[in-house]
Structure prediction request, 388 residues.
Amino acid sequence: MQLDRDDERILAGEQGETKQKMLELIVALGKVFGAERLVPIRSAQVSGASYKTIGEYGLQWLASLDAKAVVPAVLNPIGMPRGRWEEMGVDPVFAQKQQAVVAAYERLGIALECTCTPYYLRETSFGDHLAWSESSAVSYANSVIGARTNREGGPGALAAAIVGKTPCYGLHLEEKRKPQIIVRVEADTRNWDIAHYGALGYHAGKLVGNRIPFFSGLESATPERLKGLGAATAATGAVALYHVEGVTPEAAKGLFDLSGLEVINVETGEVERLFKEIPVDAVAVGCPHCSPLELEEIAGLLRGKVVTMPFYVFASQGVIDRNQKTVDQIEKSGARVFADTCMVVSPVMEQYEAIMVNSGKALAYVPDMCAAVARIGTIAECVNVATE
Ligand code: F3S
Prediction:
């Protein structure tokens, strides 16, 4: 693998042991995946942030590191809202451990914006090379923005943040970004909302596995709906990049040769069968974290209503701060808008038997991660159920 003089110095230990080890990790990963060189990155997003998922071993490893990120880097959601963990009912022992994890990342120069939607906080542009690790963020960056990132593991993304480079293979290369299978949606999608896109992704992800799908027939795609689609296909499949005919930036150029690709048809019933009316004892939306537009929609639907069961809304602290009035409106109903965490990585959600979500990704993860039944519905249905 080609390395420059700076890289050689780092490998010789001239910038400290942690940076040396981080570059060794990057080079080893690059060799495994056949990378010929490293590519400088514009930003990193680091998973492995919730104490619920990394545990004591992960915390000790982080605490042993001594280096600083050299590119803007953010954390993935953690197990609690940093400022409101007591209000959310987080166990103090867990909170103390989680704070130690956060402090370790802060020492490494990782910004404490704990979110899977870093693109709402910092500009990310077409063609940017990134080292992001949360699967929905990776999917959004690649597909909706047209930036370039592989789905990094937590240590790989952290190493890239500290070195400022990542191995150049896979989705960093133009020729590896072509569609590999066509998903033809044979449904009237004009009135579909985020939940339908999430349910489509939940279904399609199982069919396409780790191939790059090219969706056709989606007539109501918006960035928020695509966010839901990508999060779900990444959860039930291993999709880090998808294209939508005429919509996503690389597909909109119309340059893909689709001849000879396998075609899968998805019909209305296959999506709608996922919308089951089962009783729930909590509602949670914001997977991935809400955009300002989603917060506005939720506020509008909750106006003049009072929730009759716990209603969680998840968004990044940055989005909350910039939309405080909307957040206040939502909270007037009794719903709570929490930053930094989500229904999957917070241990608080394990107290519920059945959770209603508007996300295909949460539909896939809640059963295993929260030991609860998951029900999917539109945001309007979520509000209806929570206020009836
Ligand atoms: Fe984000 Fe948590 Fe969903 S990390 S994509 S809100 S599972």
